[in-house]
Amino acid sequence: MASTLIAVDDAIQHMLSAVAPLQRFEVVDLMAAAGRVLAEDQIASCYVPPADNSAMDGYALRFADAKAPLPISQRVAAGQASQPLRPGTCARIFTGAEIPLGADTVVMQEEIVLTAFDDVCVPSDIRIGQNIRPKGQDIQAGQCIIKAGTRLDYRHLGLLASVGIAQVSVFLPIRVVLLSTGDELVQPGEPLKAGQIYNSNRFLLQGFLQSQGVEVVRFIQVRDRFEETLTALEDAADSADLVISTGGVSVGEEDHVKPAVEALGQLSVWRLAMKPGKPLAFGHVKDTPFIGLPGNPVSTFVGAHVFVLPLLKRLAGESASSSSLRLVGRAQFSVTTQIRQEYVRVKATWQEGQWCLSAYPNQNSGVLSSAVWGNAMAIIPPATQVVEGSEVSFVFYTTPNPDSN
Ligand code: AMP
Ligand code: MG
User: Fold this and answer.
1) Is the CB of 180 within 6 Å of ligand 1?
2) Within a domain: residue 96?
3) By residue range, what is the domain housing residue 186?
4) What is the DSSP string of 216-277?
């Protein structure tokens, strides 16, 4: 019934307000910090660069002295300490070397002329301060360079290293227990008997979670029995920060996840106005957050991006916006939505100054090939008619490949 469906954005907001970042931290070496979420603001204790230094190989001098030929009174290479510059002289200097006290200008070596006495003559069009990188031009001591809640990548590691930080406090990774429900499921590598299918969701989800820095601590295969579902959920909740199940959240006779979660905790979200993935559940098993994704592989895939990802970010302490970057593209397909928001698997290609979105021909929630063929999801709000040429919003779920146009 239309009135019982919950809007996707409302469900996400509800979910995010029902959980808090896990307050567990560890200190790691900078080299091991990529992919981790920073627990504390990082304050620089030094200037970058620590002193004025030369941007060129050349000669450092006082601008006021520049008219007369200048004898060379010292030589400063990168890594060496300099002496105060004697008035009326210049210093031979190299890129990255500290500017001697008193010098205010560097002339590059290609621009000078040496006299017969090896004194340095500089051109008349030099500017005071040229070719000097001033102390602190990048970072000032006392400045916050990276805020808590940032997921660190190689850029942050470089910046942290530039101020001498060797270790950082980070949030511990989230521990997830994965449950697959369904008597029909068989692990890849096993023979397939009549009535059985291979468990694809387990691998899809585990790979997705690992790519997000999550520790998948356990996997439990659950048969379609109420008691077994109850026991599995209870065990999972004891060893996880988040329990994720697939399948069994519908209202069929063999769907035991909903009553089992309700017996152990509570279920907050149940039927969503989205396609694919209507029967998606969120709640708590005991005190552990729980997400129940529908069993169809594309529903699991879409649910992972739309629901699991923002939840992971919140639990992980990440301050970044919980939603993925939305872009606008031109549809090369048509679709008319009813009361549900639809996530259409598309291939986005850059053509003549805009993103063009072609849809995989079979959008059935059992067709996982659509996710591999495509690189993005077009998001079509409820009650919308999209025709070829309509502008629609979309999110990439993988990096676009220019060769796959
Ligand atoms: P359910 O949500 O349990 O009703 O499952 C919906 C559909 O998804 C059924 O056709 C299931 O066989 C299929 N399904 C459930 N779990 C998985 C899984 N882990 N891998 C592949 N297909 C699944
Ligand atoms: Mg099932």
Assistant:
1) yes
2) yes
3) 2-23+172-316
4) EEEEEEE-S-HHHHHHHHHHHHHH-SEEEEES--SSSTT--HHHHHHHHEEEEEEEBSEES-
